[in-house]
Design brief:
Layout lengths: L8 H6 L27 H16 L8 H24 L2 E3 L5 E3 L1 H19 L4 H5 L5 H22 L5
Antiparallel strand pairs: 1-2
Length: about 160
């Protein structure tokens, strides 16, 4: 498939339908919100509880998104654990033969960050994907508060300063 991947109608509406193309009025409309799956790790569940309310309030997280969102939450947990390991042990390690190599947790950090950015963009959680969204003025305060809360939680998870 050529070109950018199709965007869900909910995200197009939040963005104000910038392409002015007809919206898919027959797009399935799963119920808003969902519960974390049973297989989600405890750390992943903490991330779910921190971010899901914001996405549900914005109409982005639906029952059909459960698996993709759970994967995002699990990868956030993996990133946090790898980050702690790198902080404790450093970015490099020494092999039995005395060679200095990149610590496996540092490689995990890199892989996790790539997956997190891709999945976060699907849910409007990156700066670029968020900049394409707009909300009605009546909802703006709630959406701004919800997005600010989500950004703070994501910053705390990733160890960055909140924006």
């Amino acid at each position: 498939m050529k070109g950018p991947p199709p965007r869900p109608t909910a995200l197009k509406l939040l963005a104000g339908n910038p392409g002015k193309r007809p919206l898919n009025l027959r797009e399935p409309k799963p119920p808003r919100g969902c519960q974390p799956p049973k297989w989600l790790s405890a750390a992943g569940r903490r991330h779910w509880r921190a971010i899901a309310p914001t996405l549900t309030a914005c109409g982005i997280l639906t029952a059909a998104d459960q698996t993709a969102f759970a994967l995002l939450c699990d990868w956030l947990a993996i990133y946090a654990e790898a980050s702690d390991t790198v902080r404790r042990e450093g970015f490099s390690s020494v092999t039995k033969r005395g060679n200095t190599v990149t610590h496996p947790a540092a490689r995990t950090l890199k892989a996790a960050s790539e997956v997190i950015v891709r999945l976060a963009a699907e849910f409007g959680l990156t700066a670029a994907s968020r900049s394409r969204l707009s909300v009605e003025p009546v909802q703006a305060d709630k959406a701004d508060d919800a997005l600010r809360f989500a950004r703070q939680k994501l910053s705390m998870i990733l160890g960055d300063e909140p924006a």
